Amino acid sequence: MSYLDQVFSPTLLINEAITRANIQAMSDKAKRHGKKLVPHWKTAQSHEIGNWAKDYGITEVTASSIKLAEYLCGQGWENIHIAFPFNIRETNRLNRLAQSQSLSVQIVNTDTLNFLATNLTETVGFFIEIDAGYGRTGVSIHDFQLIDRLLEIAKSSDKLKFKGFYLHPGHTYYIQDKAKVHEESRDALHLLKEKYRAQYPDLKTRLGDTPGCAVMEEFGDVDELGPGNFVFYDLMQAELGSCTKNDIAVCLAVPVVDINLDRKELLVHGGGVHLAKDVLIQPDGSKNFGEVVILSESGWTIPSHYSYLKSISQEHGVVKASDELLASVKVGDLIGILPVHSCMTADCMGEYLSLDGKIIDHCEGQ
């Protein structure tokens, strides 16, 4: 039975071979540079895909929430790091999980660390998140006074273990000079290591962004790489130069429900609730919510002719279709859509269908 015979409504397909190749390539790169790969599992959010990752020597992962960390507990990970400024309202939940799983959290202020120092009942590690120019969250690289205060607070509790510094240079996604951002981030972590390693000889520095980790080849004395999106990649990563479209490992299969030859458009069942609403702006100013690929028994292929999802609403998607696509499809057929942002698409869909017809788990589908 073909996997396509199992698709009746929008379904997120996963190509295991491409996924494994992406994981292996990043793992090999980390080993080549003497770094530890600790991928951010907010992209895959899956037990099964985690098992694939373990085949390439990955022993730790990062979660985007305590919910995801809880989902990943009991899967044999040496440590699960929650890479989001810790929410103290979830401390009881953290204590419960830490009874049986090594965990670490992200710290950006003294209020949170003071609360944990008083209320933790289990040992928990923590990274201090550093802001070296992104501006979203984190302690400024120049604020040594705050860093010192955080380290002093941690000394007051036998439950808090300082692990090191974490830096996510998210501005690599929108600043053209990615090499400059990468160099600034690498240098910031080096500065911190030089300043604090005499006091904390075991501290680790972790750099986590897919564009930098995928493209750059010089990581200095950074200890760990923490990219996430590389597991699947997507159209945004392809536009940034992190990958090619052939490296994209997931694809949304959508049914064609109407064809308008006059407008050269297809109406598909596939909208914002399936893909999210991340968008790329094309050179002519038009919006691209995903690109069409041709589905087959062996997966999908990128056609020589170009068709794309020009607009989406909650359940609807409108495809601007090439003449070749219009000539080859009929109502009821399936086409594939490469996502703009695979992390969000996977989160929306809550499970994957492999090309051999197996359902692959996702945290949001539990």
UniProtKB/TrEMBL annotation:
Q: Which family does it belong to?
A: Belongs to the DSD1 family.
This protein's record includes keyword Manganese: no
Q: What is this protein called?
A: Amidophosphoribosyltransferase
| Cited InterPro entries | Ala_racemase_N, D-amino_acid_metab_enzyme, D-ser_dehydrat-like_dom, D-ser_dehydrat-like_sf, PLP-binding_barrel
Keyword entries, A-Z: Glycosyltransferase, Lyase, Transferase
Residues crossing the lipid bilayer are: none
Query: Alanine racemase N-terminal domain spans which residues?
Result: 18-230
Q: Which residues form the D-serine dehydratase-like domain?
A: 249-353
Q: Which GO terms describe its biological process?
A: D-serine catabolic process
Q: Single GO molecular-function term? A: D-serine ammonia-lyase activity
- In its keyword annotation, does this UniProt entry include Transferase? yes
